[in-house]
Model the fold of this input.
Amino acid sequence: MGILNVTPDSFSDGGKYTTVEKAIEHAGTMLSDGADILDIGGESTRPGSDPVTAEDELRRVIPVIEALCKASDVVVSIDTTKAVVAEKAISAGACIINDVSALTHDPAMAEVAISKGAGVVLMHMLGTPGTMQDSPAYNDVIRDIAGYLDARISELASAGLAEESIAVDPGIGFGKTLEHNLRLIASLKEFGSFGKPVVMGLSRKSFLGRITGREVDERLAGSIAALAYCVLNGVDIMRVHDVRESRDAIEVLAAIRDSGKR
Done:
């Protein structure tokens, strides 16, 4: 899953792809580099970020989605917590809703997903982007987050969302300390027990900088190391900035794994 943030303030690539032309060019690069899904977002959810209006978000994402989907059969995910944005994005050609609030921020989001037959990524976040890193705490980070995601799956399935359309994301960096993030990655098999695809987004994130001392644009090696661990431990979809390098790493891992089966 290649990340395409058409925002001025995302933590890694904010401001780089704020015109339709630049966004389309970068999308084409990610697709040629091996992205299977493009995840397009018009509102930053970095720690401490402020919300934007639905109008601003729509203005940023809809022209890009329309242009991409008219040009090819690309699989597009809309990264939003707003039902109106998700609905219009799906009408423009998106087919997945990637919601950092697990469809809780907007009461109308579940109905949009159900009525449109969209795939959904249910992510765990503690609080809001503006508050989530203010001393996050859990009784047991693995049990708490697994229990939350399990409950959301049950609630949405009871409301009519097709279970085969659901994927889960533990939410690395969304209301977690360094130790929380490391425990979540080390315990990935807990999240595979739901029988749903597991999504992980850890590309260039601050916990990697805490470990390595590297700034955000120097975290490729750390991102690939974490990706390799995730892939070897059952993660189905990796959400990344660096598609070419990530695809290369996955292909090498697959070749080694397949060789051991001969």
Residues 2-259 form a domain with the TIM Barrel fold (CATH 3.20.20.20).
